[in-house]
Amino acid sequence: MLIYGATIVIRKKFSASGYFTDCRKYNCTIAQYIGEMCRYILAVPPKSTDTDHNLKMIFGNGLRPQIWTEFTERFNIPKVAEFYGATEGNANIVNVDNTVGSIGFISRIIPSVYPISIIKVDPNTGEPIRDAKGLCMTCKPDEPGVFIGKIIPNNPSRAFLGYVDEEASKKKIVNDVFEHGDSAFLSGDILVADELGNLFFKDRTGDTFRWKGENVSTSEVEAVMSNLVGYKDVVVYGVEIRGQEGRAGMAAVLDPDEAVDLNKLVEGVKKTLPSYARPIFVRILRKIDLTGTYKLKKNDLQKDGFDPSKISDNIYYLDCGTGVYEKVTPEIYMKINDGSIRV
């Protein structure tokens, strides 16, 4: 921007209702977003001025595929340049051809042009799966895996300088990737590539959990649930149930007024999610914490589990008998844990 002398408009604080007002006021042609910003903007009631702007493109990171088309059509956005990358990483990608939901592209014909790849990992440990030669295995089209960027010696753009914490740095490097002695930056993010080479974000390795023998993408469930509750903040994670393998899905919904209709919610969940991905528990939050980049925090929520004696928020479970969400009481909590109530 500085090289070409472009004018930049910086707002002191993000405003969902004022986003396009600012674009009109300053005659912006390109706008930026990050994290959950687009969802917050979409949640603002429609106005006659929604398309009254001169934007040619928006760019950023975090526009979920589930609201991509709705957002671009409502606000008449010609192009979206969704990108992916980590500040400390050595590989960044960007969607340059407006493919809905894509975060970038990797050539299927000449993949070596850009030294990035998606490798197979163990869904439980996140460790790379290796072949008989001890090398990593690349994923097939539509097969989820971890995104990596090859580290090339003496090439600053392909270097990984690491963190201050040496142990943390080691965890981000995988060795013997495509040949013995080479190495790559391990992003920790699960991506999938289609047959054309378009890349799509699925989840983070620490967030995905298994339930009923299936891998559940928290990112995908969060997007579906948010759409069902009017674009409210939703955090999805897995919680342990005594005697059960894997983790049961919990959806924490920011709804301080408890306006969400749980009966309508369960109907929508059954229509839009496979049985293994449907949240077993719903927690109604009075408040929620965001990161500095407008992403939802979930670690503390996950530690809380579903014990009502330790949580002041109301928690509900999906009753297999009635097919609706019923309140979790201390007695219900004990019965779920001892197997008297099956989930």
TrEMBL record:
**InterPro entries assigned to the protein according to its UniProt record, in alphabetical order:** AMP-bd_C (IPR025110), AMP-bd_C_sf (IPR045851), AMP-dep_synth/lig_dom (IPR000873), ANL_N_sf (IPR042099)
Q: Kindly state which keywords UniProt assigns to this record, in alphabetical order.
A: Fatty acid metabolism, Ligase, Lipid metabolism
* One of the GO biological process terms: long-chain fatty acid import into cell
Residues in the signal sequence: none
Reaction catalysed by this chain?
Answer: a very long-chain fatty acid + ATP + CoA = a very long-chain fatty acyl-CoA + AMP + diphosphate; tetracosanoate + ATP + CoA = tetracosanoyl-CoA + AMP + diphosphate
Which is a Gene Ontology cellular component entry for this protein?
endoplasmic reticulum membrane
Q: Which stretches make up the AMP-dependent synthetase/ligase domain? A: 1-131
The superkingdom of the source organism is Eukaryota
Q: Does the keyword DNA-binding apply?
A: no
- From the Swiss-Prot or TrEMBL record, what is one GO molecular function term? long-chain fatty acid-CoA ligase activity
Give all residue intervals belonging to the AMP-binding enzyme C-terminal domain.
Answer: 220-295
Pfam families with a match to the protein in the record: AMP-binding, AMP-binding_C
Task: Please verify whether the record's keywords include Lipid metabolism.
Answer: yes
Record-stated family: Belongs to the ATP-dependent AMP-binding enzyme family.
| Name under which the protein is recorded | long-chain-fatty-acid--CoA ligase
